[in-house]
Amino acid sequence: MTDVLRLVQGTKVVGGRPVLDAANLTISRGESLAVIGRSGSGKSTLLSILGLLDELTEGERWLWGQRVEDLGERDRAVLRARRLGFVFQNFRLIDYLTAAGNVTVPMDAAGTLTRRQRRRRADELLDELGLAALRRRRPRQLSGGEQQRVAIARALACEPDLLLADEPTGSLDEVTAAEVLRLLRDATRERDCALLVVTHDTAVAAQMDTVTELVDGRLRTVTAPRGRRAQRLRGEST
Predict the structure, then answer these.
(1) Domain ranges within the chain, ordered by starting residue
(2) pLDDT tens, 20-53?
(3) pLDDT averaged over consecutive 10-residue blocks of the chain (238 residues)?
(4) What is the pTM of this model?
(5) What pLDDT, on a 0 to 100 scale, did the predictor assign at position 177?
């Protein structure tokens, strides 16, 4: 496997308190990884740091063998737009754009395709996710599950090497949440990219290849066999 991302001795201090404390993490192409932890443990901060939206106080991030700390803000923005895809719990769709318009947003930022190519790519992704008939609808006209599928299409628009998902099923019912997880895992396998999910939900975490827990700023791998992982995680969270 090829390492997509490595966090080396990552430390983040917020308000004098270390949210991350010399944390280490590696994720490879084709792998899905969940980071679990209690509310307020720093999961979302970790995701922002890995997504190049926030800075480390100390330590290093390596993306595809490139040290992020050696890059200027413009180069980081280009890397973020072209190589990373984001899926959020509250979807973060733009209200005045159609479903297809929302999917084209990261492609507009990346600037690597013509307008016609961007529209075609958006239509292809929406069709793949079962939303072809809803391409002209705006977010308020879509159900929660449909909005999240649009968000996944948007995250896949630039064919990222790494998908970063922050509580991607937190606003969904159980059936819809299971479908969204399936879509994320299928996208990871079919596109040979990596998927990193931060969640407090142990049932969601149990669907990933690897589970890592964030405790007191440190990351530790949960090593239970996959078939027993959900039971063990439920036990640890009580």
Answers:
(1) 3-237
(2) 999 999 999 999 999 998 888 899 999 999 999 9
(3) 89 93 93 90 93 96 94 91 89 95 92 91 94 96 94 93 92 87 88 92 89 92 53 46
(4) 0.87
(5) 87
Whole-angstrom CA distances from 206 to 154, 167, 225 are 25, 14, 10
| SS3 category, 1 | coil
Alpha helices in 161-207 (DSSP H): 174-191, 202-205
In angstroms, rounded to a whole number, what is the distance separating the alpha carbons of residues 135 and 122? 9
Backbone angles phi, psi at 204, to 5 degrees: -65, -45
Residues 156, 152: Cα–Cα separation, whole Å: 6
Task: Give the number of other CB atoms < 10 A from CB of residue 45.
Answer: 18
Q: What is the pLDDT of residue 133?
A: 96
Task: Report residue 186: phi and psi, to 5°.
Answer: -60, -40
d(CA 36, CA 229): 13
Dihedral class, residue 40 (left if φ above 0, else alpha if ψ from -120 to 50, else beta): left
| Residue that the structure tokens 């307020």 belong to | 40
Q: DSSP E strands: which ranges in the chain?
A: 3-14, 17-28, 32-36, 58-63, 66-67, 84-88, 162-166, 194-199, 210-215, 218-222
Q: Cβ atoms within 10 A of the Cβ of 213, count?
A: 19
Tokens of 24: 């280490």
3-237 homologous superfamily: P-loop containing nucleotide triphosphate hydrolases (3.40.50.300)
Q: Residue 88: CA atoms inside 13 Å, Cβ hemisphere, count?
A: 9
Backbone angles phi, psi at 234, to 5 degrees: -60, -40
